[in-house]
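Protein Record: Sequence and Backbone Structure Tokens
======================================================

Structure line: whole-number tokens from a learned vocabulary of local backbone shapes, matched to residues.

Purpose: to set a sequence beside its fold so the mapping can be learned.

___
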Amino acid sequence: MSSPWKPDGYNSASPYLLVKDVSAVLRFLEAAFGGVPLRRVDRPDGSPMHVEVRIDDSVVMLGGAMSDWDDVPGHVPVYVPDVDAVYEQALDAGGASVQPPMRKDDPDKRAAVRGPGGHTWWIGTQMSDDGWGRERSATVSNDRPNHPQG
């Protein structure tokens, strides 16, 4: 029997966010998205160095930035069953609105909230599965002409 190559229930790619206040981001993720802490590694002084949080079927990793580092803001898309409700939860959890829920030229209704550490959480719900995928299939190519082989 072989050893598992990743922790059970983890996705293969996870965002890793560097933040000064890991605890504030963790509280935000718990309140806004129902995040569940999985693993935590503390520094000798007890402050969090690394925290892993499950949001639905994905894991977000948080790294505690060293005292001389700034937050490194990123953008993280999160699909949810009800974009309107989760947008309100994120605002109630202390997030700042970047974009209220709206539908544009694709199948998703999206909102955006900036949370602790300056990260923008793009909250989305797929409203239909037709149209965009069909249109994109005609324009997206698997060829990589601008990427040299080597």
In short: The chain is about 20% helix and 35% strand. Residues 16-137 form a domain with the 2,3-Dihydroxybiphenyl 1,2-Dioxygenase; domain 1 fold (CATH 3.10.180.10). The longest helix spans residues 22-33. The chain has one domain: 16-137.
